[in-house]
Task: structure prediction
Amino acid sequence: MRKFMKLYSIEQKLAFRSLDGIVFGIIMPVGILFLIAIIAGGKAAGDSGYTFLQSAYASLIAVGICAGAFMGVPLTITDYRDKKILKHFFVTPCNPMHLLGTSMLCNVVNAVLSAVAVTVVAMVFFDYRMAGNPWYFMGTWVLTLVSMFSIGFMLASLCRTVKTANAVTSAVYFPMLFLSGATIPFELFPEGLQKVASVLPLTQGIRLMKAASMGVEAEKVGGIVILLFVITIVCSFISVKTFRWE
Amino acid sequence: MSKCIEVRNLTKSFKGRTVVKNLSFEVERQEVFGLLGHNGAGKSTTIETLLGLKKADSGNIAIFGKEPRKHRKEIFEKIGVQLQASNYQNNIRVDEICQEMSVLYQDPADYRELLKKFKLENLEKAPVNKLSGGERQKLSVVLALIPKPEIIFLDELTTGLDTAARRDVWKQLKQLKQEGTTIVLTTHYMEEAESLCDRICLIKDGAKVVEGTVEEVVSKSPYDNLEEAYLWYMGEEITL
Result:
């Protein structure tokens, strides 16, 4: 445990130093929150009967998860593999899983900080109050986080080099970010695009978190929960099966 | 003296190409053993298979009398390794990578003293990627020494260093040798082998060509220096 915490503290310092996680995971969602709240915060979103801020809150919370799952996790792991850092851990008495664990923890911490920052800003500056049950919301957050991170691990296993990882993570991250309603409110999309966006796993996670935050029964909640569980199991399985240390 | 490394009939192939062929050698405690050969001769593969990073197709390997793949935790408490062309995390500083390594061992050396020994103490807070080639290689030796190793493995440690930096590293390695550390190194610089190694093993296409002290290897060839003897063993034409 002492080993793990020491490794974690150094890896966390490196993560903060690189700024990527902070910019993409924390500053960006908070910035978008300001924009949405100032432009359209109190207005009703589509014909949903909720304000844009209420609707956007869950999506913005998901940005931190998205940054960790589709950028942080796969890029760090492929980078460490390319640099033979994981390989070097094999010639020490320590298990390389420790290092992977710390790098995952850094991304989870970033996602938590992001969620806290968005929530505090929304509550302090824009008088946001969650209509739904916060505990239920946290449950949906954890499920979304776990399932999205499992996709990230799968990408890390499937991409052999940092170069492919860069291309693949961009190809996954940006569509997920823009189409899932995490940046542009989902309600503003034309119906066709909403259908396309619904295919993305993050959209389903956000739908679940949105329903929980607004305290409404989402359609097919059970189906979404099962879907996210299946994604977690399948992606974890693939990532374990195809993982390479070098 | 007693053996600390034994390699018996080691064979390893990748995708149908045999990279290491039936290779056997032993390393005694407190000796400096050099594995010599051209680029692609199988030096790194031998080291990596020996360390258990790659699984041997056939043959036996023992370090301290034990198979490294099965006794990883125990064996690697007392082994320091520098892998060829290793890299470090982005933005990491010298002291941070040293701390990260130190925490992995039960009884690590004081990295500050090691940095001082290698004249890197002023760079403790410097980012690793700002170091010069020589400083980086010295750092990789420092990291390999953190376990207070009985054996250190150095894979092409001095490749890419200028003459002064190379000599500087040699000096440190000679001191380690005096302190009783067993050193296994790979190189393609004959001067380095002559200056450091008690015994050398020349390999070509993964198979052993000749093994012995530098004098023995040279005297078995028609030439009187290691460089020409090496080329002769490798079957290269010697001009000049």
The first helix of chain A runs from residue 2 to 18.
